[in-house]
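Hi everyone, sorry if this is the wrong subforum. Our group has a chain we'd like a structural model of before ordering constructs, and none of us has done structure prediction before. Sequence below.
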Amino acid sequence: MKVHRINRRAPLLFHMAGYFCSPGPNWIHLSRLLTDYELMIVVKGTLFIADGNREFSVKEGEYLLLAPGSDQHGYLHSQCEFFWVHFSDSELLLPQEVDPNCAAFSDEMVCVPEHGVLSDTTVVWNQMRLLLKHHRLYDDPYVAAAATMVVLCLLQHQCLRGRPASQPLVKDDLQGKILDYLNWHIHENIRVSQVATHLGYNEKYLSTLFTAMTGESIKHYILVQKWKSPSASSPTPTSPSLPLPPTWAFPTATIFPLPSKKSWGCLPGNTGKSTGNKPKNSAKKAYRSLLAVRFWFCFLIRCRR
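Answer:
Right subforum, don't worry. Here is the predicted structure as C-alpha cells:
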C-alpha cells in the first residue's frame, strides 16, 4: 500500500477547497500536472482518474490523495460528486510502501494511504463541510489548514487503524450522546423522558438500550452521578451533618438517602454509627424529621391512589 507521509509539526499550507458536482454523465476530469497535494473524497457516483502511473476508480465512500508532481487526468467519463482540497506541506516527504497490518507510526507523522475506503463516511464528510464553512466565513488559511490536518488524521485512523468490527458504530454514538446529555444536565432535575425527547427516541426503548449497553439503567446512572458530581463540596461519610446543597438537584429530599445507601452502604444518619462516631443530637433530630416527612409523603401518595 502506497502511503503519503505528512509531518504534523511542519506547517501545512492550505490553498483552496470546494465541492464539485459533475455537470453531466459525459464529464471527464481535466489533465494537468499537480504542483501540490489534492485530496478528493467522493460522496456520490464514481470518479475515474489517473496519476500517470495508475488508474483509479474512486467510488462513493472512498477517497484519493495525489501528491505533487502527479500527471493528473481523467480516463473515463464520470458522473459524480466529491469534496476536494488542495494543500502543500513545507516538508515534502516521498511516499512509502507500507503494510497496513504491521504499520507503526509516531506522533510526529500523519500517514495517509493514497487510496482508501472510509469506515465512517459521516465523520469525514461533516469535517469537510466544516472546513468549507470556516473557509467561507472567515477566509483564514490557518483555520482551514488546521481543519485539513484534522481530515488527514481521520483518514489515517479509519484506513490504517480501522475500527474493530465488534464495536457497532451506531450504538457507540448513541451511548455517547446519552452520556454527554446526562453529564451536561446532571445538576438539573433531569428525567428519562427528557433525554428521550431530546434524542428523538421512545422512552422505554432508550432506557432498555442504555441498560443493555452499560449494564445499568438511566435512572440509576443519574442518581449515582448526582451523588458523585459534587465530590469537592460534599460531606464525607464520617461527617456528622449531611446538608443538601441546592446544586445537587434532587427532586425531593426523600430521594436524597437512596444514592447515599448505594454509594456508602448506609443511610446518612447511620454514617456516624458505622464509623464509631456519634453524630450530634441536632443531626439526629434533623434526620428523624426527614424520615417523618418521607413517611407522610409516601402515605399521602398511596391514599390518593
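For your construct planning: Residues 281-304 form the longest helix (24 residues). The longest strand covers residues 12-21.
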